[in-house]
Specification:
Elements (H helix, E strand, L loop, with lengths): L1 H37 L19 E2 L12 H14 L5 E9 L2 E8 L5 E8 L4 E4 L3 H4 L23 H15 L4 E9 L2 E7 L5 E8 L5 E3 L6 E6 L1
Antiparallel strand pairs: 1-5, 2-3, 2-10, 3-4, 4-5, 6-7, 7-8, 8-9
Length: 231
Amino acid sequence: MKNIKKFLIASIVLITIGVVGLISVGIIFSLSSLAGTFGTGTGYTFGPGKMMGMMRGFNSGTQYIDLGNISFDQVKSSGEKYLHDIGMQNVKIKEIMEFSNNFYIESVEKDTGFGAIELIFDKTNGAIFPEYGPNMMWNQKYGMHSGFASNQYKNNMTIDEEKAIELANNYLAKISQNEFAGDEGQKFYGYYTIDTINKDGAIVGMLSINGFTGQVWYHNWHGTFIEMVEY
């Protein structure tokens, strides 16, 4: 009888250890899956059903580039390689803006002319990655929430470009005495990105307007504007 009790106790202990082990493996697997989707190594789902964009960036081969004297053509080449590597064959670079902190790369769809994604080229290490802010949060076709947007393939914003510029100017009037919205904006899927200018017409920075809510998001991570090239 004692032997049976010992056997039962031992069995229960082994079963308990097994269950705990399975739970631990499940937790580790779940965490590693989340890290692969949003975290430290492999990026997040950026676009309709494809793994596009890397949270930690794509290294543009900067061991061959003098980052202190990098040209717009080199930034464009790196941006095109990035777009190719993430599978965006129907997208081309429209303009590149140099700021004190980084290069801003604007891309558009070749067939529609609608904005696709906005990229940042990091001047310190040559990495390219999706721009923060509206590009990730408001972009209904290529952004982080694209899979949840029922109208992700339609550019049916309720706010038109003229109204977006008006809203931008209203916002700038409250925060700055010498910054105004430019006279045109780039339409993306869910928002507009508009350059800001001073009273002399020189570019200062940029902001985005949500095409449904009118919310304004100023791009305050670029630094001082230096130069721009359009393609």
